[in-house]
């Protein structure tokens, strides 16, 4: 991807990220979009989603010369998340892609899974690794 961008005469950076764990608390398009909208609205309930948004956004600001450091970019973007400007800027983008503006006001309209199965485990511990494709297909 970087090579394609450079071939087109563009400044390009790529971030290689670990995709074997979810960033937020849910898996599935509507649920992940709901979390993203909540982060744009200033919620700190999903710190990993917020952190990725700040990292990527700050990198974009740095590449365009709008900030001098990644820290400056993260700081500016965090303020925009916290004061509602980020969500306000997202609304016209959503409209231009024929999104439902009511969802921005009420992310719960995206719905949720009507049924789920909880699986019990017999010992305590934590999940070290998952198969992201299996989870994606299941969701």
| Biggest β-sheet strands, sense, barrel | none
CATH architecture of the domain at 20-110: 3-Layer(aba) Sandwich
Q: What would you call the shape?
A: globular
The SS-based structural class is mainly alpha
Mean pLDDT: 85
Helix content: 40-55%
- The name CATH uses for the topology of the domain at 20-110 is Pyrimidine Nucleoside Phosphorylase, Chain A, domain 2
Structure, described:
With 139 residues, the chain is an all-alpha fold. The protein has a domain at 20-110: Pyrimidine Nucleoside Phosphorylase, Chain A, domain 2. It is 52% helix and 0% strand. It contains seven helices and no strands. It has helices at residues 2-7, 29-40, 47-63, 70-82, 85-96, 101-105, 132-138. It is globular and about 55 Å long.
Architecture blueprint of SSEs:
Blueprint (H helix, E strand, L loop, with lengths): L1 H6 L21 H12 L6 H17 L6 H13 L2 H12 L4 H5 L26 H7 L1
Summarize the structure.
With 139 residues, the protein is mostly helical. It is built from seven helices and no strands.
């Amino acid at each position: 991807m970087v090579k394609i961008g450079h071939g087109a005469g563009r400044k390009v950076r790529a971030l290689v990220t670990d995709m074997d764990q979810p960033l937020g608390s849910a898996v599935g398009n509507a649920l992940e979009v709901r979390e993203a909208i909540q982060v744009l609205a200033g919620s700190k309930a999903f710190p990993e989603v917020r952190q990725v948004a700040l990292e990527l956004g700050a990198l974009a600001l740095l590449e365009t010369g709008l900030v001098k450091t990644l820290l400056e970019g993260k700081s500016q973007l965090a303020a925009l998340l916290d004061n509602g400007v980020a969500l306000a800027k997202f609304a016209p983008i959503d409209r231009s892609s024929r999104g439902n503006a009511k969802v921005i006001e009420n992310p719960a309209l995206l719905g949720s899974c009507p049924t789920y199965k909880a699986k019990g485990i017999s010992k305590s511990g934590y999940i070290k690794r998952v198969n992201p494709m299996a989870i994606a297909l299941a969701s």
